[in-house]
Amino acid sequence: MSDESRTHAALRHAEQGASTGVKWAARIGYAARGVVYLVIGGLAFLAAIGPGGQTTGSKGALASLRDEPFGQAILIAMAIGLVCFAIWRAVEAIRDPDHHGHDAKGVAVRLGEGISAITHTFLAIYAASLAFGWGGGGGDGGNSAQSRSGWLMSQPFGQWILGAIGLAIIGVGIGQIIRGYKEKYHKYLRMDYQTQRWADPVCKAGLYARGVVFGIIGIMLVVAAWRHDMFEAGGLGEALRVLQNQPYGWLLLGVVALGLIAFGFYSFIEARYRRIRTT
Q: Is the pLDDT of residue 14 over 50?
Protein backbone atom coordinates (compact mmCIF):
# COMPACT_ATOMS: atom_id res chain seq x y z
CA MET A 1 0.00 0.00 0.00
CA SER A 2 1.36 3.40 -0.96
CA ASP A 3 1.86 6.23 1.53
CA GLU A 4 -1.04 8.12 -0.09
CA SER A 5 -3.36 5.10 0.24
CA ARG A 6 -2.38 4.67 3.89
CA THR A 7 -3.07 8.35 4.50
CA HIS A 8 -6.55 8.13 2.93
CA ALA A 9 -7.29 4.96 4.93
CA ALA A 10 -6.24 6.69 8.15
CA LEU A 11 -8.44 9.70 7.36
CA ARG A 12 -11.45 7.47 6.63
CA HIS A 13 -10.85 5.60 9.89
CA ALA A 14 -10.61 8.87 11.82
CA GLU A 15 -13.78 10.21 10.17
CA GLN A 16 -15.64 6.98 10.95
CA GLY A 17 -14.51 7.19 14.57
CA ALA A 18 -15.60 10.82 14.81
CA SER A 19 -18.98 9.96 13.26
CA THR A 20 -19.47 7.11 15.73
CA GLY A 21 -18.61 9.42 18.61
CA VAL A 22 -21.10 12.05 17.46
CA LYS A 23 -23.81 9.41 17.08
CA TRP A 24 -23.25 8.15 20.60
CA ALA A 25 -23.24 11.74 21.88
CA ALA A 26 -26.57 12.37 20.15
CA ARG A 27 -28.22 9.28 21.65
CA ILE A 28 -26.90 9.97 25.14
CA GLY A 29 -27.98 13.59 24.77
CA TYR A 30 -31.53 12.74 23.77
CA ALA A 31 -31.78 10.43 26.78
CA ALA A 32 -30.55 13.19 29.12
CA ARG A 33 -33.13 15.60 27.71
CA GLY A 34 -35.75 12.93 28.28
CA VAL A 35 -34.86 12.69 31.97
CA VAL A 36 -35.18 16.48 32.38
CA TYR A 37 -38.66 16.49 30.85
CA LEU A 38 -39.76 13.47 32.86
CA VAL A 39 -38.88 15.32 36.06
CA ILE A 40 -40.51 18.57 34.90
CA GLY A 41 -43.68 16.79 33.86
CA GLY A 42 -43.77 14.55 36.92
CA LEU A 43 -43.42 17.46 39.36
CA ALA A 44 -46.04 19.47 37.46
CA PHE A 45 -48.49 16.54 37.52
CA LEU A 46 -48.03 16.15 41.27
CA ALA A 47 -48.68 19.90 41.63
CA ALA A 48 -51.88 19.51 39.59
CA ILE A 49 -53.34 16.73 41.73
CA GLY A 50 -52.12 17.82 45.14
CA PRO A 51 -49.51 19.67 47.21
CA GLY A 52 -46.69 17.23 46.56
CA GLY A 53 -45.24 18.76 43.38
CA GLN A 54 -44.15 22.05 41.88
CA THR A 55 -44.16 23.82 38.56
CA THR A 56 -40.57 24.26 37.53
CA GLY A 57 -38.29 24.48 34.54
CA SER A 58 -35.11 22.69 33.54
CA LYS A 59 -32.95 24.15 36.30
CA GLY A 60 -35.53 23.40 38.95
CA ALA A 61 -35.80 19.85 37.66
CA LEU A 62 -32.06 19.36 38.00
CA ALA A 63 -32.03 20.96 41.43
CA SER A 64 -34.74 18.53 42.58
CA LEU A 65 -32.36 15.64 41.83
CA ARG A 66 -29.65 16.92 44.15
CA ASP A 67 -31.14 15.58 47.37
CA GLU A 68 -32.22 12.25 45.93
CA PRO A 69 -30.27 9.04 46.68
CA PHE A 70 -27.10 9.08 44.56
CA GLY A 71 -28.04 12.64 43.64
CA GLN A 72 -24.46 13.72 42.96
CA ALA A 73 -23.82 10.79 40.63
CA ILE A 74 -27.10 11.43 38.82
CA LEU A 75 -26.25 15.11 38.33
CA ILE A 76 -22.78 14.28 37.03
CA ALA A 77 -24.36 11.85 34.56
CA MET A 78 -26.89 14.53 33.57
CA ALA A 79 -24.12 17.09 33.05
CA ILE A 80 -22.30 14.67 30.74
CA GLY A 81 -25.50 13.85 28.89
CA LEU A 82 -26.40 17.51 28.40
CA VAL A 83 -22.91 18.24 27.08
CA CYS A 84 -23.42 15.39 24.63
CA PHE A 85 -26.72 16.92 23.52
CA ALA A 86 -25.07 20.32 23.11
CA ILE A 87 -22.38 18.73 20.91
CA TRP A 88 -25.02 17.08 18.74
CA ARG A 89 -26.99 20.31 18.39
CA ALA A 90 -23.79 22.12 17.39
CA VAL A 91 -23.11 19.47 14.74
CA GLU A 92 -26.67 19.89 13.45
CA ALA A 93 -26.29 23.67 13.28
CA ILE A 94 -22.88 23.68 11.60
CA ARG A 95 -22.85 20.60 9.36
CA ASP A 96 -26.59 20.37 8.64
CA PRO A 97 -26.73 16.54 8.51
CA ASP A 98 -30.52 16.60 8.06
CA HIS A 99 -30.14 18.87 5.02
CA HIS A 100 -32.35 21.75 6.10
CA GLY A 101 -30.56 23.91 3.56
CA HIS A 102 -29.69 27.58 3.32
CA ASP A 103 -33.09 29.11 2.59
CA ALA A 104 -34.87 31.20 5.22
CA LYS A 105 -36.58 28.20 6.83
CA GLY A 106 -33.39 26.13 6.88
CA VAL A 107 -31.36 28.96 8.38
CA ALA A 108 -34.02 29.48 11.05
CA VAL A 109 -33.97 25.78 11.96
CA ARG A 110 -30.18 25.70 12.15
CA LEU A 111 -30.11 28.91 14.19
CA GLY A 112 -32.51 27.27 16.64
CA GLU A 113 -30.22 24.25 16.84
CA GLY A 114 -27.28 26.54 17.56
CA ILE A 115 -29.20 28.30 20.33
CA SER A 116 -30.14 24.89 21.72
CA ALA A 117 -26.44 23.95 21.79
CA ILE A 118 -25.67 27.05 23.85
CA THR A 119 -28.57 26.65 26.28
CA HIS A 120 -27.82 22.99 26.91
CA THR A 121 -24.15 23.82 27.50
CA PHE A 122 -25.16 26.25 30.24
CA LEU A 123 -27.63 23.72 31.61
CA ALA A 124 -24.82 21.14 31.76
CA ILE A 125 -22.64 23.64 33.65
CA TYR A 126 -25.53 24.23 36.06
CA ALA A 127 -25.91 20.48 36.65
CA ALA A 128 -22.18 20.19 37.34
CA SER A 129 -22.32 23.17 39.73
CA LEU A 130 -25.08 21.45 41.69
CA ALA A 131 -23.15 18.18 41.76
CA PHE A 132 -19.91 19.71 43.04
CA GLY A 133 -21.40 22.54 45.10
CA TRP A 134 -19.97 25.32 42.96
CA GLY A 135 -23.11 27.43 43.11
CA GLY A 136 -26.37 27.97 44.89
CA GLY A 137 -29.63 26.11 44.74
CA GLY A 138 -32.56 25.65 42.46
CA GLY A 139 -34.82 28.16 40.84
CA ASP A 140 -36.84 27.35 37.81
CA GLY A 141 -35.35 29.81 35.38
CA GLY A 142 -38.13 32.38 35.78
CA ASN A 143 -35.93 34.95 37.55
CA SER A 144 -33.12 34.49 35.04
CA ALA A 145 -35.59 34.90 32.17
CA GLN A 146 -36.79 38.14 33.75
CA SER A 147 -33.27 39.45 34.35
CA ARG A 148 -32.23 38.63 30.78
CA SER A 149 -35.35 40.31 29.46
CA GLY A 150 -34.67 43.38 31.61
CA TRP A 151 -31.09 43.58 30.38
CA LEU A 152 -32.17 43.21 26.76
CA MET A 153 -34.83 45.92 27.04
CA SER A 154 -32.21 48.30 28.41
CA GLN A 155 -30.25 47.99 25.14
CA PRO A 156 -30.91 50.01 21.96
CA PHE A 157 -33.94 48.51 20.19
CA GLY A 158 -33.99 45.88 22.94
CA GLN A 159 -37.75 46.09 23.39
CA TRP A 160 -38.26 45.26 19.70
CA ILE A 161 -35.69 42.47 19.81
CA LEU A 162 -37.38 40.90 22.84
CA GLY A 163 -40.72 41.06 21.08
CA ALA A 164 -39.20 39.43 17.99
CA ILE A 165 -37.71 36.66 20.15
CA GLY A 166 -41.12 36.10 21.70
CA LEU A 167 -42.75 35.83 18.28
CA ALA A 168 -40.02 33.40 17.18
CA ILE A 169 -40.66 31.20 20.22
CA ILE A 170 -44.39 31.25 19.47
CA GLY A 171 -43.47 30.13 15.95
CA VAL A 172 -41.40 27.28 17.38
CA GLY A 173 -44.34 26.24 19.53
CA ILE A 174 -46.69 26.22 16.54
CA GLY A 175 -44.05 24.28 14.62
CA GLN A 176 -43.94 21.63 17.35
CA ILE A 177 -47.71 21.19 17.17
CA ILE A 178 -47.64 20.98 13.36
CA ARG A 179 -44.79 18.50 13.55
CA GLY A 180 -46.90 16.29 15.76
CA TYR A 181 -50.12 16.67 13.79
CA LYS A 182 -48.49 15.97 10.43
CA GLU A 183 -46.22 13.29 11.90
CA LYS A 184 -43.16 14.99 10.45
CA TYR A 185 -41.00 13.26 13.03
CA HIS A 186 -41.36 10.02 11.05
CA LYS A 187 -38.65 10.99 8.61
CA TYR A 188 -36.14 11.28 11.47
CA LEU A 189 -37.00 7.95 13.12
CA ARG A 190 -36.22 4.42 11.97
CA MET A 191 -39.09 2.35 13.37
CA ASP A 192 -41.00 -0.68 12.17
CA TYR A 193 -44.79 -0.59 11.98
CA GLN A 194 -45.39 -2.28 15.33
CA THR A 195 -43.10 0.17 17.13
CA GLN A 196 -44.67 3.09 15.31
CA ARG A 197 -48.17 2.11 16.49
CA TRP A 198 -47.34 2.68 20.17
CA ALA A 199 -44.77 5.43 19.59
CA ASP A 200 -47.04 7.74 17.57
CA PRO A 201 -49.40 8.69 20.43
CA VAL A 202 -46.42 9.33 22.71
CA CYS A 203 -44.63 11.49 20.14
CA LYS A 204 -47.75 13.49 19.31
CA ALA A 205 -48.73 14.12 22.94
CA GLY A 206 -45.20 15.24 23.76
CA LEU A 207 -44.92 17.60 20.80
CA TYR A 208 -48.37 19.10 21.45
CA ALA A 209 -47.55 19.79 25.10
CA ARG A 210 -44.16 21.27 24.31
CA GLY A 211 -45.77 23.43 21.64
CA VAL A 212 -48.27 24.77 24.18
CA VAL A 213 -45.66 25.73 26.76
CA PHE A 214 -43.40 27.29 24.12
CA GLY A 215 -46.38 29.32 22.92
CA ILE A 216 -47.07 30.59 26.44
CA ILE A 217 -43.39 31.48 26.97
CA GLY A 218 -43.39 33.41 23.69
CA ILE A 219 -46.58 35.27 24.59
CA MET A 220 -45.10 36.26 27.95
CA LEU A 221 -42.03 37.69 26.21
CA VAL A 222 -44.18 39.63 23.74
CA VAL A 223 -46.28 41.04 26.60
CA ALA A 224 -43.11 41.93 28.53
CA ALA A 225 -41.78 43.81 25.49
CA TRP A 226 -45.14 45.50 24.83
CA ARG A 227 -45.48 46.69 28.44
CA HIS A 228 -41.75 47.22 28.91
CA ASP A 229 -41.99 45.14 32.07
CA MET A 230 -39.44 42.39 32.59
CA PHE A 231 -41.61 40.81 35.30
CA GLU A 232 -44.08 39.74 32.63
CA ALA A 233 -41.41 37.43 31.17
CA GLY A 234 -40.82 33.89 32.36
CA GLY A 235 -39.49 30.46 31.56
CA LEU A 236 -41.03 27.02 31.42
CA GLY A 237 -41.90 26.94 35.11
CA GLU A 238 -43.71 30.25 34.87
CA ALA A 239 -45.59 29.05 31.78
CA LEU A 240 -46.85 26.07 33.77
CA ARG A 241 -47.92 28.37 36.60
CA VAL A 242 -49.92 30.44 34.10
CA LEU A 243 -51.84 27.29 33.21
CA GLN A 244 -52.28 26.40 36.86
CA ASN A 245 -53.82 29.82 37.62
CA GLN A 246 -56.52 29.52 34.95
CA PRO A 247 -60.09 28.30 35.62
CA TYR A 248 -59.84 24.51 35.94
CA GLY A 249 -56.11 25.12 36.09
CA TRP A 250 -55.46 21.81 37.85
CA LEU A 251 -56.92 20.03 34.85
CA LEU A 252 -55.03 22.11 32.29
CA LEU A 253 -51.79 21.69 34.19
CA GLY A 254 -52.36 17.96 34.62
CA VAL A 255 -52.97 17.41 30.91
CA VAL A 256 -49.92 19.44 29.86
CA ALA A 257 -47.82 17.77 32.56
CA LEU A 258 -48.71 14.36 31.16
CA GLY A 259 -47.78 15.70 27.73
CA LEU A 260 -44.38 16.82 29.00
CA ILE A 261 -43.86 13.37 30.47
CA ALA A 262 -44.73 12.04 27.02
CA PHE A 263 -42.12 14.38 25.54
CA GLY A 264 -39.59 12.83 27.90
CA PHE A 265 -40.45 9.41 26.49
CA TYR A 266 -40.36 10.91 22.97
CA SER A 267 -36.78 11.92 23.70
CA PHE A 268 -36.03 8.33 24.73
CA ILE A 269 -37.59 7.18 21.45
CA GLU A 270 -35.25 9.54 19.62
CA ALA A 271 -32.32 8.19 21.63
CA ARG A 272 -33.15 4.71 20.38
CA TYR A 273 -34.60 5.18 16.90
CA ARG A 274 -33.31 8.54 15.61
CA ARG A 275 -31.68 8.46 12.17
CA ILE A 276 -28.40 10.16 13.03
CA ARG A 277 -26.28 11.35 10.16
CA THR A 278 -23.12 13.36 10.57
CA THR A 279 -22.73 14.52 6.95
A: no
